[in-house]
Amino acid sequence: MLIELAGVTHHYGDRLVLSEVTATLTEHRIGVIGANGSGKSTFARLLNGLLVPDAGSVTLDGLDTARDARAIRRRVGFCFTDPDAQIVMPTVAEDVAFGLRRLKLPRAEQRERVRAALARAGLSEHADHPAHLLSGGQKQLLALTSVLVTEPDLLVLDEPTTLLDLRNTRRIAAVVETLPQQVVLVSHDLDLLAGFDRVLVFDEARLVVDAAPDEAITRYRSLMTSGAERPEQVP
């Protein structure tokens, strides 16, 4: 998917959270890093129309998020930091099936998709369990599975491992590593970005670094060092 941002600016009330961000993204796996409040989560929400820019434009394969939000959401899946924010159905299987409703699939095909998705996630034995009683790692796997079952072209993950222990972080990382979908991953866990194609660094509402992972992470670490000089915005 071709992701294009042109002069994107966004405010929350009077607070500037993104300033004139321009980027063209085509890579398979793209990481997004930055300090809290740097604008990275706002950037992520702009990619599927959860937010629309105050100025500039965001397009995905030519679809504008301000005009074509419904079409974009059919192609872009989004996972939040807290899975409880997106688990909406009582049981595990029902939650996975929920996203398929808009596709209006025959019931047999819907059941098979749910069965296969749960098997891939290792959640088959929990199919009839109350979704909100799962462990934290299982909830995040469920949230991810409920998005992936709709077969999006692009998956956006906003800090999906922040609430997880090391073992469950590795489980999520292993799933992301094998996905055929294009992925945009926002994370504070720099180890998750190993093997990514490109990393964007945000600082004080600006996109300040756009580079390969090793270079981007090195520059980010320098930026976070006390007294480090703030870089100019990426042209």
From TrEMBL:
CDD domains in the cross-refs: ABC_cobalt_CbiO_domain1 (cd03225)
InterPro entries in UniProt: AAA+_ATPase (IPR003593), ABC_transporter-like_ATP-bd (IPR003439), ABC_transpr_CbiO/EcfA_su (IPR015856), ECF_ABC_transporter_ATP-bd (IPR050095), P-loop_NTPase (IPR027417)
Domain annotation ABC transporter: ranges: 3-229
Region forming the signal peptide: none
Keyword NAD annotated: no
Classification via PROSITE patterns: ABC_TRANSPORTER_2 (PS50893)
GO molecular function: ATP binding
The keyword Phosphoprotein is annotated on this UniProt entry: no
Family from the record: Belongs to the ABC transporter superfamily.
Protein name as it appears in the record: ABC transporter ATP-binding protein
Top-level taxonomy: Bacteria, Bacillati, Actinomycetota, Actinomycetes, Propionibacteriales
